Amino acid sequence: MKFTFSVLAALVAAAFCAQEASMAKDGTYTATTLGRNGDVTVQVKIANNKIEDVKVLSWSETHPVADLPKAKVPADIVKNQSTNVNNVSGATLTTFAIKAAVQDCLKQAGLNPKDFSKMVPQPQKVTDNIEEKTDVIVVGAGGAGLSAAVAAAQRGLNVIVLEKAHFAGGNTSVSGGCFNAADPEGQKPINMTDGQRESIEKLLAEKPQNKLQEDLITQVKQQWADYKKSGSKSLFDTPELHALQSWKAGDYKANLELVYRLTKEAPEIQETLAKMGIIWQKKPTQFVGALWPRSHRASNYKSGVGYIDTYLDLIKAENLPVAFMMSTPAESLITKDDKVIGVKAKGPDGKTYTILASKGVILASGGFGANVKMRNEYDELWDKKLDEKVKTTNMPAITGDGINMALKVGAGVKDMGYIQLLPTTDPATGSTNHKIVESTNIYVNKLGNRFVNEQGRRDVLAKAALAQPDHIFYIIGTEQTLLKDKEGRGPYGILISDLLKQKKAFKADTLEELAKKVGMDPANLKRTVEKWNEFCKTQKGDEFGRMSCEDGNKLPGGPYYASLMTPSVHHTMGGLTIDKDTRVLNKAGKPIPGLFAAGEITGGIHGTNRVGCNAVPDALIYGTIAGREVGK
């Protein structure tokens, strides 16, 4: 066979290039892409034209939501030699980020990413029906579900926990983690202001609407008299004051007996959590919508995930008889002679599970904040405008399944029309994890003007925010008041540098520079901050009626930060009707045998407006009660 010179040259060049490409392919490469929260850096090892290893080196993705994709997606890519592997439900953006980084590494190695994009077979579905038996079934593995499971297991009961998502945590794991509890010892460093004193006097002057409110007012009057007689200047607080404030904040619509049990047992649960490993910060603060400086947070955990990890660690350490069935949503309750005796559920592989519980079923599956249809069907506060355009802080799995299951067996519901919007959320995602300063810091609109008392009720704050241009505003803070750790991460574990890069937060040395970066009038912003600082100095005469300015709210000087905010659906105050022992009541107000409920799935505890930082104690206290009461 004869070849022309040009053909021979081409063959030699091709062979040379192939040799060069082969040499270029082997090695270790890294690439960084943007995930949900920030940069995701991935390392890929290439050998013999194959993906030999994939590792996630660093990221700010949310634990525990992103734990599964961090392990599963790299393993699936190596196993299938393809980046076209299945996404992890509930962590799609994280999955995409890992895939994109691997594709970048393939390009760096001289490989064509298209050669590593073959379709991966879908998991084979089966139709088996499996029956299981246990003492207690808990539906939902969030804060309420885990506390219920632990309390039941510590009584020696065998517990099966059904969880719709692929991880334990629910909304608790992505919450801010604040925990309201009266704590006079911890509150000693907080000075009482004239505005706070006046608010107590007004509360005690109210005409009682029932016997319990009358009793609580009588108790607080005596506590208040003793406090004033003592000459103390520290913040006054008691569980009874907490109850009265919370009931009023919900427009007196809640069941005061349930409210008082929450506030009375909160200090006890706080102490129990400390024994379990939670290290509380020494001084409580006042979170957005909390109404009083009694909001506690852990110093050894980021956000609400600390409660989840603490309960899971306890289950493991004490070898408690708790079995988890993840990615296994409950579909219906099983009844016999009007008693709830079990749950039907669907496994991730298609298997149907019939699980029978000899002692009872505890529903702890959350509210319906992520169910657009339900929230618009029930809404009584927002003119039926909570459509898909309105983001939510909720996990995607929080769609009211437990409520609908219970309705089918005759459960009653209460306060379903009361849905809370949280004013301080990310306009792009609805999440709260871009927070970098206290959410009770000064709120400033696009014009550079303050527009509301930042310590007010969440519904008031949300309505005020929605009345601002483009429904957005900024929370202003400084370097001195920044909530960051030694690694430069905010309270949710996200690098502040990533938030600045994504323009979810802004930084400047001066107020004038900050105003220009976010598009405000510099003179307006400067004038607004000057008035704010004067109020923080005197703690008197705030134009919006604010009662106090805590240390974390002050603006001592630059550098300055601004976080972009808008309201999103946060909490559904309505749900199943329960009694003080968490028994689910039917429409006639009678207990449904074998059925209990705790957490956001219940109604009657918050009324029209949930006080900020009452949700975690609600979940953990009533979850614990459910675990103690089930089967008695």
TrEMBL record:
Binds 1 FAD per subunit. Binds 1 or 2 FMN covalently per subunit. Residues 35-109 form the FMN-binding domain. Its cofactor is FAD; FMN. It comes from the Bacteria. GO terms for molecular function: FMN binding; oxidoreductase activity. Residues 1-24 form the signal peptide. Its EC number is 1.3.99.33. GO terms for cellular component: membrane. InterPro entries: FAD-dep_OxRdtase_2_FAD-bd (IPR003953), FAD-oxidoreductase_2 (IPR050315), FAD/NAD-bd_sf (IPR036188), Flavocytochrome_c (IPR010960), FMN-bd (IPR007329), Succ_DH/fumarate_Rdtase_cat_sf (IPR027477). It catalyses: dihydrourocanate + A = urocanate + AH2. Keywords: FAD, Flavoprotein, Oxidoreductase, Signal. Coiled coil: none annotated. Belongs to the FAD-dependent oxidoreductase 2 family. FRD/SDH subfamily. This is Urocanate reductase.
